[in-house]
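Hey L., structure's done. Input below.
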Amino acid sequence: MTDPGPARIGIVLPDAATPVLVRRALESIASQSFRDWHLVIVETANASGSLAEALPDPTDPRITLLPSEENEVAAAAINRGLAALETELAIIHAERDSWAPDFLHVMARTFDRMNAALPGLKGVVSGVASVEESVTGNHVRIDSVRDWRPPGLRDDLRNGVFDIRRSIAANPFPAIAFLFDRQAAVDVGLYDTTLPVLAEWDFHQRFCLENDVWVHTERLAFHRCATDRTDPSESAAFRALLTNRWIRREGATGLGTLQVLQALAAQGTPESSAGGMDSDVALPSQKKSRGPVGDALSRFNRLRKRWV
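Output:
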């Protein structure tokens, strides 16, 4: 019998700990109309039950279960899962998230079409719905459903090539919506295991620095979180860590510094200006001012003339 070779798409389900959520994630994957996938489940040390029992078919050769490792952080679990794959494309599927049945089919087709037109394009992102829910035992209660929007940005992602500037103000898209070239991810260094939080944002930022990504805004992914979550404040406390790394990496006169100054001048939230990120319109009865972004760039240009 001929070996069919590796699957086309690799899926990593990291930090798998809650059987009821893992079962739902597995249903999300098993219901995909696109069947050429390989799933790697990475257990976490604090799993609340046997995850092997949650598998719909423990004999399915497309599913690999990796046992937990002591003191393994989430980023390391993701990297270990990615290292176990041999697929062309990959995606991270958190145990809490889910997909519409045609997600993989539409995303793979979109990737092929756009990569043929733009060889430097190495990823594709779908539209996302945000779901808040409460989990009690084996019961999951949906509390709210709305369009997902990048934190701090006024508008949703738009169809077309992803604008890298959006990765400065906030994590521009959740992992559940991002299908990417696995080798391109290896080339940029995968997830940074030294970051206490925000490793996903950092990975997306570095990936987009090196590769183009296409946005397909059809809402095919569901990013779910606990209604009583407390992580946003923790993430905000470490936000400057990524900004500092960006500035140091790009250098004093790099394009990255210009983009960071824009974000910093607006206090990291493009919506702080009346028109958002793309606004450049003055009111008819007012004299147009440079605003905080213009002031920051003017200061930067004055300093740059001294350095050159």
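The longest helix spans residues 291-307. Confidence is low (pLDDT under 50) at residues 267-289, 303-308.

-- N.
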